[in-house]
Design goal:
Layout lengths: L2 E4 L4 E4 L3 E2 L13 H13 L4 E3 L8 H10 L7 E6 L1 E4 L5 E5 L3 H14 L5 E6 L8 H13 L3 E7 L3 H10 L2 E7 L11 H8 L2 E5 L31 H20 L4 H12 L12 H9 L7 H12 L10 H4 L5
Parallel strand pairs: 3-4, 4-5, 5-8, 8-9, 9-10, 10-11
Antiparallel strand pairs: 1-2, 6-7
Bound molecules: NADP nicotinamide-adenine-dinucleotide phosphate.
The site of NADP nicotinamide-adenine-dinucleotide phosphate (NAP) has 28 residues, from helix 9.
């Protein structure tokens, strides 16, 4: 698989990474640990060198799975994890409260290092901007961790352009990880121009629209109670019915290219800029292989134009987060 570089400090990763969250958390029941480890190692064998996890995925369990799976290949892979949440007493102890206080970050990193079975985190993201901690303090704490050799690169997630600039002035940011796909193009407005100007890489999460863009979800799909999509407005039955038109556009285009809709969704992201590295997630080997095939599809400027022209005629219905989660998005 081709490589791409994130940020000016030159973090080299495979053009597609693997989002490991869904193996333990957020999209239905967790995959049995041995199977999850096999899937992650299958990705390594197929050239993936970039793996995404977070303290909050589980919590903790996903980092443990990723750490165990990658331990034999540690020097050949890049591990990204995230800090920034803690249990919220006002929300039944769910991990929805933000905390990016320096002391908290330093403790989380010590714990993540143990779970990940490593002595340095390649890329450490703040998971959500913490309204109670100035971003300069957070960036300063990560700078200390980089100086101490415990972290190599700094990242942000779902941060707005102003926050990115403020953080970058204290500790250069290597990558921003935010939602971006044909299902959600808002980052094109102010975030992506800022990334380009500052030389920061972009790691789109949910690059398959949480599975919707693959065409394997429709209005009859039932989501498990442990599946976040069960409470996401965009995934209500009515909105799935309305949003099917977008999937139909992608599927038609995929047919012309003799590719699958998932591959086109990923190839579109890769064609948008050379500093973009999507991290699709899957629990299945066949889908992993299918998705990696997306990196071999080169879309031309004309391809992008026709796909974007057809897809932008469709208004996507429904918010991408329920209100409890939407309030954590930095603007
Ligand atoms: N920073 C953040 O706040 C944030 C938020 C969300 C996610 N993330 C990261 O981004 C990664 C990816 O995002 P995501 O998991 O939300 O969404 P995604 O990658 O867009 O989609 C994952 C979903 O698509 C399905 N899928 C994958 N490949 C498929 C294919 N070829 N055909 C049909 N279905 C397919 C998967 O189901 P199967 O498992 O059944 O294949 C899974 O339900 C996560 O693993 C996580 O690391 C970060």
């Amino acid at each position: 698989m081709q490589k791409r570089t994130l940020g000016k400090s030159g973090l080299e990763v495979s053009a597609l990474g693997l989002g490991c969250m869904g193996l333990s958390f957020g999209l239905g029941p967790a995959t049995e640990k041995g199977e999850a480890i096999k899937l992650i190692r299958a990705a390594v064998e197929r050239g993936v060198t970039f793996f995404d996890t977070a303290e909050v995925y589980g919590p903790f369990v996903n980092e443990e799975v990723v750490g165990e799976a990658l331990a034999p290949f540690r020097k050949d892979v890049v591990i990204a994890t995230k800090f920034g949440f803690e249990p919220d007493a006002g929300n039944d102890g769910k991990w929805t409260a933000t905390n990016s206080q320096p002391e908290h970050i330093k403790q989380v990193v010590e714990d993540s290092l143990k779970r990940l079975r490593t002595d340095t985190i390649d890329l450490l993201y703040q998971h959500r901007v913490d309204p109670n901690t100035p971003i300069e303090e957070t960036a300063g704490a990560v700078k200390d961790l980089i100086q101490a050799g415990k972290v190599k690169h700094f990242g942000l997630s779902e941060a707005g352009a102003k926050t990115i600039r403020r953080a970058h002035a204290v500790q250069p940011v290597t990558a921003l990880q935010s939602e971006y796909s044909l299902f959600w193009r808002e980052p094109e407005e102010s975030v992506m121009p800022t990334l380009q100007e500052l030389g920061i890489g972009f790691v789109p999460f949910s690059p398959l629209g949480k599975g919707f863009l693959t065409g394997k979800i429709d209005s009859s799909t039932k989501f498990d109670s442990t599946d976040f999509r069960a409470i996401v407005p965009r995934f209500s039955e009515d909105n799935r019915k309305a949003n099917q038109a977008l999937v139909d556009v992608i599927a038609k285009f995929a047919d012309q290219k003799q590719a699958t809709p998932a591959q086109i969704a990923l190839a579109w992201l890769l064609a948008k800029a050379p500093w973009i590295v999507p991290i699709p997630g899957t629990t299945k080997l066949s889908r992993l292989e299918e998705n990696l095939g997306g990196a071999a599809i080169d879309l031309t400027a004309d391809d992008l134009h026709s796909l974007e022209e057809a897809s932008s005629e469709i208004k996507v219905e429904g918010e991408r987060y329920p209100a409890t989660h939407a309030k954590l998005i930095d603007r």
